[in-house]
Amino acid sequence: MTPTPASPPPAFDDPHAAPLDSEITRVRSLPGLWRWLLIASAAITIFLCVNQQFTLKFFVGFTPLNTEYYYGLLLVSLPFVFLVFPGSAGAPINRVPWYDALLFVLTAAVSVFLMASIRRAAELGWEFSGAPASVTWASYLMWAVLMEGLRRTGGWSLLLSILPFTLYPVFAESAWLGPLKGQQYTLEQAAVYHMLSAESLLGIPVQAFAETVIGFLVFGSALMMTGAGRFFINLSFALCGTLRGGAAKVCIFASALLGMMSGSIVSNVLTAGTMTIPVMKRTGFRATYAGAIEACASTGAVLAPPVMGATAFVIAQFLGVSYAEVALAAVIPALLYYFGLFMQVDAYAARHGLAGLPRSELPTLRQTFREGWYYLFVIALLIFMLLVMKRESHAPFWATLLLLVLNQALNREKWTWATVLKFLEVNGRTFVELIGILAGCGLLIGAFSMTGVISSLASDLLRIAGSDALLLLAMTAVTSLVLGLGLTTTACYIFLAILVGPALEKAGLNKMAVHMFVFYWGMLSSITPPVAIASFAAAGIAGAPAMKTGWESMRVGSIIYFLPFFFVLDPAMVLQGSWAQALWLTAKCGIGICFICGGIQGYLLMVGNLSGLAALEWPVRFLLMVGGMLLATPAGPLLPLGAATLLIAAVVCLALATGLSVIRLRRA
After folding, report:
1. What DSSP designation does 394 have?
2. Distance CA 415, CA 396 (A)
3. Residue 255 in 3-state DSSP?
4. Residue 649: pLDDT above 70?
5. What is the mean pLDDT of residues 585-610?
6. CB burial class (10 A; 0-12, 13-18, 19+) of residue 133?
7. Sequence-ordered list of residues with C-beta below 8 angstroms from that of 134, at least 6 positions apart, any chain
8. Radius of gyration over every alpha carbon of the chain, rounded to an integer in angstroms
9. Neighbours of 579 (CB within 10 A)
């Protein structure tokens, strides 16, 4: 991937940050009537969701079933996949060709037909007892357009990963499947089950989208389009700009704040990176390092509550818990991840003598709060409704309403009708992409639900691992990383939550910790070459080699490769235990991270630059990393070493490394 030249840094008081639908060449620019249809689609999607979640009963004399509501959302969003996403690299991107218009009409027609059939299907159990021929043929058509939609939104790798499994029930009794053998069905039975069952197309992914994701997407895009990006970045510059390596610390802080609200990795890079990367380069950071910091900081967008990526909502549906529980479970890992990035930057800046930015170049804290204090009020309302009132489906809509009222009253850049239309268009594109991926991935769940293979597969995986849960975790981590290179984070999570999750739970591991483990490892592809989409996007802004930035990102964000093992070893780190234990583990892990970062970057806090150790430098850095890892690692039944042994080994390593450093540097 060839990087593009870096653009000059915008002024800190630039207006709105880039919208969530930052220009991507694979997305078609819809002309004329098609654009208005997309805007209408987004408006109808939001209306349907609000009507359903708030029980407004706008449909007088008719109360839709949940499955009818889900099909309604498919009807207004899925057909647009063929308009927004071209079918090939050579397809026109400024006009809609006739074959995509035909697919649009076909998808809409079959969606209407199946939606009209869903109530009758529920009454007669067609997904189990056989459906009329017309419904069967409509199911075949829907299956085909879902797979084509999956290819367009997620690429060939996602299609080739999902399609064989959607067909799996038709061959489930084949001897060559081994541990994957299950109950077999005919093609007709499989098609009808996929399209009508609440376990397949209308299953967990689409349910998560319909119940909670829509509201949070609306809130995130409204927040960005009212200028919150500018406020968060100015706040970060005001708080961190003068610190050692201040530009990179601003990047971490700003990307964390933006990510908490957007839940989108790439849009986070394109929003914050255009401001922070040029400033990092100007203050002495290498281009690849600046890109790596932005990529790693933006990756936290899907890890940091209150608004995480779409996968977090799918996790809540899988576990049958509220989204607030998932968000709370993510707090400590997200804090430790960002703390690790912060300490990496601090050690790097100290080793290379990189100072902060002059105060005269930075916005003041008073001015920043005067212009954007109401954003904090809106976020406080969102968190209050999530954690105290437990109204997760209502919270983002009330927060959005309050935000828009305050924006029109207090912001100098008020929304106009043109802004409203842009807001709906941005959301429409986001809805279309997500529904294209989530609907297709739902068939994966349906295939395993039909065949009943999950329980037997869990036993087989445990037998292969020799009932060693740690080995099974390692196998899962590698599999997650490999799958994540070709699948979206959500698809990778769904795949492994079905196949491996039950085996890990059967091994006695905490359910929340297991699902967060799979989620973290599947997400790592965003900074891990050869895919590393966040790293490549940041490299384009930094004007740096893409692959080199990817490898640098792995080094900078290295702590994220270990964190998932920590919270599986002791689930208190995902708040599945006592608060006292959680605080103790967080403090211990935080101190360990300081030593790990010192070893990686070659600068030990309160000791100095380790380059002065000459031949002893790398042995000391190795001891710091090993000692830090031993200190950070929670003890548990999965490890052969107890808590006391781990602590003693850590103290020995760290005392030896620190002692050698102090003695040698004082002599130098």
Report:
1. T
2. 19
3. helix
4. yes
5. 92
6. exposed
7. 113
8. 26
9. 9
Q: Which amino acid is at 130?
A: G
What's the helix, strand, coil split of the chain in %, to 5? 75, 0, 25
Give CA–CA dist 525/561, Å, rounded. 11
* Residue 425: band (very low, low, confident or very high) from pLDDT cuts 50, 70, 90: very high
Instruction: Say if CB 77 and CB 431 are below 8 A apart.
Output: yes
In whole angstroms, give the CA distance from residue 499 to residue 351.
45
**Of 355, 396, 403, whose CA–CA distance to 376 is shortest?**
403
Dig out the tokens for 220 from the structure.
Answer: 């995130």
Looking at residue 394, its amino acid is: H
Find tokens 């079918």 and name the residue. 87
Q: Within a 10 A sphere around the Cβ of 51, how many other Cβ atoms?
A: 16
Q: Which residue has the tokens 């005067």?
A: 370
Give the tokens for residue 615. 């031949």
**Placement of tokens 């006292």 in the chain:** 580
Place of tokens 């709105």: 16
Is residue 9 pLDDT above 60, yes or no?
no
* Rounded distance between C-alpha atoms, residue 181 and residue 185, angstroms: 12
Q: Could you tell me the two tokens for 422?
A: 């842009």
Contact 172, 181 (CB under 8 A): yes
Are 242 and 253 a contacting pair, CB within 8 Å?
Answer: no
**CB distance 313 to 213 below 8 Å:** yes
Helices and strands per DSSP (H, E), number in the chain: 31, 2
CB neighbourhood size of 157 (10 A):
16
**Burial, 259: exposed, middle or buried (Cβ in 10 Å; 0-12, 13-18, 19+)?**
buried
- E strand or H helix at 345: helix 331-352
- Concatenated DSSP letters of 187-246: HHHHHHHHHH-TTTTTSHHHHHIIIIIHHHHHHHHHHHHTTHHHHHHHHHHHHHTTSTTH
Q: Which helix (H) or strand (E) holds 608?
A: strand 608-609
d(C-alpha 129, C-alpha 12), whole Å: 63
Print the SS3 string covering 426-480.
Answer: HHHHHHHHHHHHHHHHHHHHHHHHHHCCHHHHHHHHHHHCCCCHHHHHHHHHHHH
Kindly report, residue by residue over 359-383, the tens digit of the pLDDT: 888 889 998 998 888 999 999 999 9
Q: What is each CA distance from 465 to 205, 272, 470, 512, in whole angstroms?
A: 30, 43, 9, 21
* Paired tokens of 70: 């889900």
Where are the chain's structural domains? 32-196, 578-668
Beta bridge partners of 604: 608
Mean pLDDT along residues 433-443? 90
pTM for this prediction: 0.85
State the Cα–Cα distance between residues 189 and 195, nearest whole angstrom: 10
Token reading at 251: 């990047």
pLDDT tens digits, residue range 277-320? 998 998 899 999 999 999 999 888 788 888 777 788 889 988 98
Q: DSSP letters of 22-50?
A: ---TTS----HHHHHHHHHHHHHHHHHHH
- Cα torsion 613, 619, 621, 624 to 10°: value is -120
> What is the CA 590 to chain-centroid distance, rounded?
23
CA distance 163 to 147: 7
- The residue assigned the tokens 């630059």 is 609
User: By the 8 A CB rule, do 251 and 541 touch?
Assistant: no
Tens of pLDDT, residue by residue over 541-557, are: 999 898 899 999 999 98
> Cα–Cα distance between 610 and 596 in angstroms, integer?
13
The type of residue at 45 is T
Task: Tell me the pLDDT of the chain averaged across its residues.
Answer: 86
